[in-house]
Structures are given as structure tokens and as C-alpha cells.
Backbone:
């Protein structure tokens, strides 16, 4: 099997490293509904003797819990009535990587299958692979890059918990967007993240400051969509671990405070299996009709799939006018006020989806983009007129403003149900219902401040 790059390990290399003692721990990991890595840490010897050939198992409630890992009702795949059985972790040998920020540790990412070896269709990685298979039917591959922002704090995660996540000290006290001085202030953390992620097989570009105090972004080179999603999940977990090792904490919350939120802009283009351009006509020096149809489909389904771009109650606080997060479902040429920004030419021609925040599940967001784009191609949708100027002040259709509105659009979407399947749509609708019920039952600090004395 061809390695993604030379920093990944073959299974033979991993076994040899375990035999020689340079690796003693293997992390088996999959990505759950919330975009988090879940799984097991195995002793290296046990991995070689028992897991390498047969895989491992885990309870199927891992794809049917809330953020707090509580089992909740409404999921067809997992319940008290069905006994909370197991599903199998199937090793993807392409994903073996060293985790150099942890002693003698390697990681293997996994697909999820039922005990009869049929795929767990609701698994985010499976959802994305289903849409990539649709592209493969046309001899196309999706190339993608995700741009994750985060806010870093001087406080440890334990201190942040004890303080209720209030009055934390950001690592910068003012806007450090593109500031070299601002990133130097936190360079020990940024450097550790860059170097450990490079060792883990990610192609690191660099780091830059952002607008909110303590806000930064570490960038990575684009890759095929599945590789990008795998790397995104590894990076998000490892960055938190590295911050914790330095006595700091970072959050990928979409909207931590009333200032700028943390985004996850997703860049995507299509290529032929042979690497040929799909989105660009080199002879004419312009976009292809397929590119326009694809973008038109993403726009036409933006409201349908907003639930997968913005999966949490907090996600919708990001969609504020003048915030660099979009409120208008429109496209523009290099226009950061629009939901979709077209950039580049030739082999660099790509669309940027500016809807997702840093809390997004990359597998689901990429699956939604591909499903929407294919809908545009199959229906030969015409690309609307370009929005020139300030999209915030335009009359373009608006992005759903609440999780409840996005939930309604998703469950009613014929495109989503045709592309993903009723079982997948219903699964993630239930996830939204669980989050909405939890939020609606909570008493917030805002309510206490407004009403404790004065009402």
C-alpha cells in the first residue's frame, strides 16, 4: 500500500518498531459525530499479537452520545432496547503515524463496521467516503484544505474548568493578526505544534496570528479530501495535548466571546484521477462549466447542509455582520464577505467555503460540499451572478441563524436524503435535537445577570 508520505509508517515498520522497543503504545482512533478522536491505547505487544490481524471492538454508543458522553435516546443504531452492542474498528494502514509529542507512541485511524462487517453508515468517515466514491464514478478526486483557528490561554485546562471557563488569560492581549511579534510571544507552543505535526505526517505550512486576543491559526498543505479530514482530526486533538503539556489550553469553540469567532474555512477543488484539471480550462484561461455547476450546487444546498457546517448551538453566534463570518449565501471572486469565495487560477483554482467554524466535523462538512457540488453538476445548475461589494449589505439569501432552523432545513432536504441516505440524515437530525434540548434546559450566565436582581 502506497504511503501518504515518507513520514508515515508501513505496518511492517510499526511492527518492527514495536519489536525493537522504540514504540510501546499504539493509539487506535476513529472520529465521532462531534469530530473528536475516540478509541483505545494498546500495548504494542498486544497490538501485534491480537489486534493487527483481527482488529478491535468498541461499544456502538460511541456514535450515539452527546458532548458529555451521556447515552441519549433517539438513535436507531444504539439503545437500551438493542443492548448497546459492539462495532469493530478496522485499521486503515494508510494512516499509521508517529506521535512524537507522546513517548514511544504511534496512531492508527480506523473505519467502523458492524459485527457482520457491513459499514457503519453513520460514521463520519464512512459518510465522506460515500461521497468520494460518487466522485470516483466520474474519475474525479476531491482535493481539500481546512484552515482551523483557535484561541490559546495561559490557563491550564484544569484551572479553566474550575473557573467555569470565565476570565481566562489569553496568550495575547490585543489583535495580533499577521503580527510577527504577536506570534513570537507564543512561539514555543506554535513551534511545538508545527514540528510535532510534521513528524506525524502532516505537511505544515506555517502559523499566523488572528484578530481575537490569543487567536492563532496553524496552516497545512491541501491533500485529497480523506487525508485532509484524517489530518484535521489528529491535529485538533494533538494541539490540545501539546498545549496541556506546556501548561496552557486552547479552544476550537466557534464563538468564545463577543469578538471574532474561530473559523474553519474549507478549500476544495476537483481533479481527474490522472491529476488533470476539472475546474479550469487552461486553453481559455477561465473556469470550466463543471466548476460553475459545482459552486452553484454548493450554494443551492448551503441552507440544507448548514447543520453539517455549523453543528452546535454556539456555531450560529459566529454568523454576525462585519465579522468575516458569512451571513449571505452568495459567491464572490476573492470576496471575504460571501459564504463562498473563489480564488486562484489554473491548478490553484478552488472554492473556499467560509461557513464552517472551528467546531466543525471535517468529514461531514466535506461530504456536504461534495454532495452539494454533485447536485449542481447533475442538475446543471446555473451559477448565480457574482456578488460584488459588501455581502452583509446585500439582498442575497441568508444563512440559517439558529441550530433549530438548520435542523429543519436538513431534515426536509431531498438532496441530503438522496445523497447521504435517510438513516444518516435522521441520525444527525437526532444529534441536533439532543443539543437543542440540552441548551433549552440550561440556565445561562446571561439570564442570571439580567434577571437575578432586576426581574
Residues:
Amino acid at each position: 500500500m502506497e504511503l501518504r508520505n515518507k513520514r508515515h509508517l508501513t505496518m511492517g515498520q510499526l511492527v518492527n518498531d514495536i519489536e525493537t522497543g522504540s514504540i510501546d503504545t499504539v493509539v487506535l482512533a476513529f472520529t465521532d459525530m462531534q469530530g473528536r478522536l475516540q478509541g483505545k491505547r494498546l500495548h504494542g505487544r498486544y497490538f501485534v499479537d491480537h489486534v493487527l490481524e483481527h482488529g478491535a471492538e468498541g461499544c456502538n454508543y460511541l456514535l450515539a452520545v452527546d458532548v458529555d458522553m451521556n447515552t441519549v435516546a433517539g438513535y436507531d443504531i444504539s439503545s437500551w432496547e438493542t443492548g448497546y452492542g459492539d462495532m469493530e474498528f478496522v485499521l486503515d494502514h494508510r494512516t499509521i503515524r508517529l506521535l512524537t509529542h507522546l513517548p514511544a507512541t504511534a496512531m492508527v485511524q480506523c473505519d467502523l463496521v458492524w459485527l457482520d462487517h457491513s459499514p457503519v453508515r453513520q460514521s463520519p468517515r464512512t459518510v465522506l467516503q460515500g461521497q468520494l466514491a460518487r466522485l470516483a464514478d466520474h474519475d474525479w478526486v476531491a482535493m481539500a484544505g481546512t484552515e482551523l483557528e483557535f484561541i490559546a490561554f495561559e490557563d491550564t485546562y484544569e484551572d479553566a474548568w474550575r473557573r467555569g471557563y470565565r476570565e481566562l488569560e489569553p496568550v495575547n492581549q490585543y489583535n495580533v493578526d499577521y503580527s510577527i511579534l504577536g506570534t513570537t510571544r507564543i512561539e514555543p507552543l506554535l513551534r511545538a505544534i508545527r514540528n510535532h505535526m510534521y513528524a506525524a505526517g502532516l505537511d505544515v505550512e506555517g502559523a499566523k496570528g488572528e484578530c481575537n486576543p490569543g487567536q492563532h491559526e496553524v496552516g497545512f498543505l491541501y491533500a485529497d479530501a480523506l487525508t485532509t479530514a484524517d489530518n484535521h482530526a489528529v491535529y485538533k486533538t494533538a494541539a490540545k495535548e501539546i498545549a496541556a503539556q506546556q501548561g496552557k489550553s486552547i479552544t476550537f469553540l466557534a464563538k468564545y466571546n463577543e469578538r471574532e469567532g474561530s473559523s474553519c474555512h474549507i478549500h476544495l477543488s476537483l481533479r481527474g484521477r490522472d491529476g488533470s484539471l476539472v475546474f479550469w480550462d487552461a486553453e481559455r484561461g477561465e473556469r470550466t462549466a463543471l466548476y460553475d455547476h459545482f459552486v452553484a450546487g454548493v450554494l443551492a444546498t448551503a441552507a440544507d447542509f448548514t447543520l453539517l457546517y455549523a453543528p452546535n448551538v454556539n456555531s450560529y453566534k459566529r454568523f454576525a455582520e462585519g465579522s468575516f463570518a458569512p451571513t449571505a449565501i452568495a459567491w464572490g471572486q476573492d470576496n471575504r464577505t460571501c459564504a463562498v469565495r473563489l480564488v486562484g487560477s489554473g491548478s490553484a483554482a478552488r472554492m473556499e467555503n467560509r461557513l464552517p467554524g472551528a467546531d466543525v466535523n471535517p468529514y461531514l462538512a466535506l461530504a456536504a460540499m461534495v454532495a452539494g457540488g454533485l447536485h449542481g453538476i447533475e442538475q446543471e445548475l446555473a451559477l448565480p451572478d457574482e456578488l460584488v461589494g459588501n455581502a452583509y449589505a446585500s439582498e442575497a439569501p441568508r444563512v440559517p441563524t439558529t441550530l433549530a432552523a438548520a435542523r429543519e432545513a436538513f431534515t426536509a432536504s431531498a438532496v441530503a436524503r438522496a445523497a447521504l441516505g435517510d438513516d444518516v440524515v435522521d441520525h444527525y437530525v437526532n444529534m441536533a435535537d439532543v443539543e437543542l434540548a440540552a441548551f433549552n434546559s440550561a440556565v445561562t450566565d446571561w439570564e442570571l445577570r439580567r434577571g437575578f436582581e432586576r426581574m
